[in-house]
Design brief:
alpha/beta; seven-stranded mixed sheet; 1-acyl-sn-glycerol-3-phosphate acyltransferase; Plipid/glycerol_acylTrfase; two-stranded parallel sheet; Glycerol-3-phosphate (1)-acyltransferase; about 35% helix; 9 strands
Amino acid sequence: MFYWLMKRVLVGPLLRLMFRPWVRGLENIPGDGPAIMASNHLAVIDSFVLPLVMNREIVFIGKSEYFTGTGLKGRLTAGFMRGVGTIPVDRSGGKASEGALRTGLNRLNDGGLFGIYPEGTRSPDGRLYRGKTGVARLALESGAPVIPVAMIGTDKAQPIGKRLPKPMRIGIVIGEPLDFSRYQGMENDRFILRSVTDEIMYSLMSLSGQEYVDIYAATQKARLAAGVKASETGAPPPSAPGGRPAPDVQVPEPPQETPDPSVD
């Protein structure tokens, strides 16, 4: 109930006015049944913008820090996140992260939509980073299709470090569902998990037009935080997931707006 109140009354109308989101591929989201919405991650607002263009409720996982803040702001943030169904995840890994994925699996088993960012954290520089295999495990254990989602321009609206986004048009490109049923029962094979994850990341790269870097985003963030310049981080040259050659991709452009014929 609170989800739809936030989307349709309290927050959604303001976000639509600020970002005027354009979308392609909306028909790729099934009208019912479980599906994993696997998205690139450029800004905090990603989790709020995607639901604006969807007719179904979607639940994301979010870092546990959103739920542990202090003071009025911290309580409001935690309340908002819980209200829109965000599932907290401890990014330290191990059993904590496994618990969040179990919650996501339960959501899929109930026939819902579950949103996940395979990179595990926001991109530090707008590039697409190596995916973590949790998304592959979810796909193989649940049998749900994976729908790749490319957020376009949200990092321009809300660069890292900027709390309040600036109004500007942003986009969403939704790809065709990816079916991994051929790997059913192989969710404990790490090579299969990596192959599935790379296929998902390749689709995200193709949809978003981002340059791909074959290291984890968290690793790159740690290097930058340690004072290592971006040009000195030792990141591998641009390629494609799975070690394939990098294809020639372009960042999608928004559709041209049709002029109002009543205005000279």
